[in-house]
Amino acid sequence: MKLPYIEPYKIKMVESIDQSTPEMRKKWIEEASFNLFKLKSNQVMIDLITDSGTGAMSDKQWAEIMLGDESYAGSSSFFKLEKTVKTLTGFKHFIPTHQGRAAENVLFSALVSKEDLIPGNSHFDTTKGHIEYRNATAVDCTVNEAFDLEDNYPFKGNINLQKLEKTLQKYPGKIPFVLLTVTCNSNGGQPVSIENMRDIRMLCDQYGVGFFIDGARFAENAYFIKIREKEFANHSIKQIVKEMFSLADGMTMSAKKDGIVNMGGFIAMNDSELYKNCSTFTIMYEGFVTYGGMSGRDMGALAQGLIEGTTFEYLESRIQQINYLGDRLVEFKVPVLKPFGGHAIYIDAVKFVPDIPKEEYRAQSLAIELYIVAGIRGVEIGTLLADRDPKTRENRFPKLEMVRLAIPRRTYTLSQMEYVAVALKNIYDTRKEAKRGYEIDWEAPIMRHFTVKLKKK
Ligand code: F0G
Question: What long-range pairs does 443-449 form, CB within 8 A, spacing at least 24?
Answer without folding.
Answer: 446/129, 446/132, 446/133, 446/387, 446/390, 447/125, 447/126, 447/129, 447/387, 448/384, 448/387, 448/388, 449/37, 449/125, 449/380, 449/384, 449/385, 449/387
